[in-house]
Amino acid sequence: MDDTPRIPTTVRPAQDADIPAITRVYNQGIADRLATLETEPRDEDERRAWLLGRGERHPVLVAERGGEVVGWGCLNPFSPRPAYRFVADFSVYVGREARGGGVGGALLAALIAAAGRLGYHKLVLAAFPFNEAGMRLYARFGFREVGVYREQGMLDGRWVDTVVMELLLDGDGETGGRGDGK
Predict the structure, then answer these.
(1) Which residue ranges make up each domain of the chain?
(2) What is this structure's pTM?
(3) What is the pLDDT of residue 179?
(4) Which residues pair with 73 in a beta bridge?
(5) Sign of CA dihedral 176, 101, 18, 47
(6) How high is the mean pLDDT of the chain?
(7) CA–CA dist 108, 91 (Å, integer)
């Protein structure tokens, strides 16, 4: 058993000063081919425009450990159609140095809570089935698999599937008896 003290994770709204870390972590996620169908690295100018272009219902949160941003997550529009205004897609990215240390769980818990405060009814995502850590995280928070998009995108010359998952919220950032991460 590892007795190394765990550095606490703090989750807070992203700020302009976080752009370099957000860009670094996102580019690691792109390069590692575990969490996105994005294939081209992003630069800080693009990420700054992305952050500034987000509305109140689509926050970006960062996770800090020891004063350093080691991950980020956000709520994204699911669809521009008004009927879908209570459904959000989300993203969670954790820097290589912090993976497996609870950062993803801290971000996901904060995103679920934010979604409830913002009046969302449901969170959805599409994940790679081979991202075993991500799949365990989503299951721990009560997400259920609703299907698989076969050959949804091409990465490095091969077709990859994505697993579609959902979590119903009760309106207070809680889930119907699940999603507490335990």
Answers:
(1) 9-168
(2) 0.89
(3) 43
(4) 61, 92
(5) negative
(6) 91
(7) 9
